[in-house]
Amino acid sequence: METPTPPAFRFSRLLTVQPEDIDELDHVNNVQYVRWVQDTAGAHWLRAYPPGEREQYIWVVREHRVQYRHPALLGEELRCTTWIGEVRGAQCQRFVRIERAEDNKLLCEAETQWVLLDPATKRPVRIEPDVVARLWGPVKNSDN
Q1: How far out from the chain centre does Cα 130 lie?
Q2: How much is the pTM?
Q3: Alpha-carbon separation of residue 64 from 33, 73, 80, 93, 142 (angstroms)
Q4: Considering only CA atoms, which of 44, 4, 21 is closest in space to residue 141?
Q5: Does residue 4 register a pLDDT over 90?
Q6: Contact 113, 61 (CB under 8 A)
Q7: How far apart are CA 22 and CA 33, in angstroms?
């Protein structure tokens, strides 16, 4: 999967691989990567939209595409970086890269299609330009 150069800001967060992330092969379980992809998207959203502003939106996943490149091991510090790609109607494309912080080795990359829902009707709603602008704009990174 080729992740294009983002048109906008990248949001990053650091995490450390915990014992519960490890599977019977002694590396991070693939399901955990998907959780980190979703959690990183959520962390970016929460930074862009503080309490009082985010309640009018609900995001749901339509599709994940994940490529696992190298294993992550217990105790390693990882950097999860996300950015927004194409926005069409109610859909928003988001990319996430998970790298080992020590040497920037790419471990996993994902592309997710998110859909914006109206909280009252639970039906898709068009993503307004101001939402796109906010997601493409800088927010305080959790690395800072």
Answers
A1: 20
A2: 0.87
A3: 11, 23, 16, 10, 24
A4: 44
A5: no
A6: yes
A7: 11
Condensed to tens digits (0 to 9), the pLDDT of residues 16-43 reads 999 999 999 999 999 999 999 999 999 9
pLDDT of residue 9: 78
Task: Identify which of 33, 104, 40, 26 has the alpha carbon closest to the alpha carbon of residue 65.
Answer: 33
Cα distances (angstroms) measured from residue 129 to each of 14, 70, 125, 136: 29, 37, 12, 10
41 closest CA partner among 82, 9, 70: 82
Separation of alpha carbons 90 and 128, rounded Å = 9
| Listed residue (46, 28, 47, 37) closest to 97, CA to CA | 37
Dump pLDDT digits (tens) for 63-75.
999 999 999 999 9
CA distance 76 to 59: 30
% of the chain exceeding 70 in pLDDT = 91
Tokens of 83: 């950015």
User: What sign for the dihedral angle of Cα 132, 143, 67, 27?
Assistant: negative
At residue 104, the pLDDT reads: 97
